[in-house]
């Protein structure tokens, strides 16, 4: 995500607007294939919103969930379903971390990795988290990113 440029500064490599828009289009295409109206959010490497679309028919509640899935993935550098795996057997962490604002620990959020660096994240919400995960994975692959 960053390139060292000295002891007091760094360069951040992040998704461009064009890259974010391409990912949104890929999510919409994958969601249409599954007949699943979704909301999709793409965040940059710093977990800031770059692009967002709510498809016709996607429930209003999916707006915040998609954005929070992308935020969680960018902020932690992990897919949201992996966050659940991390906390599920740790009682204090499992009970405490769920109170962290914007944290999502179920599937549908993925970091976007380019050249080994996290450059952003995508969040998909509209169906069961397994459907959201499948749509996100299909879109990432269509754009040439690994899952």
Automatic annotation (TrEMBL):
<dbReference type="InterPro" id="IPR005624">
    <property type="entry name" value="PduO/GlcC-like"/>
</dbReference>
<dbReference type="Pfam" id="PF03928">
    <property type="entry name" value="HbpS-like"/>
</dbReference>
<protein>
    <submittedName>
        <fullName>Heme-binding protein</fullName>
    </submittedName>
</protein>
<dbReference type="InterPro" id="IPR052517">
    <property type="entry name" value="GlcG_carb_metab_protein"/>
</dbReference>
<dbReference type="InterPro" id="IPR038084">
    <property type="entry name" value="PduO/GlcC-like_sf"/>
</dbReference>
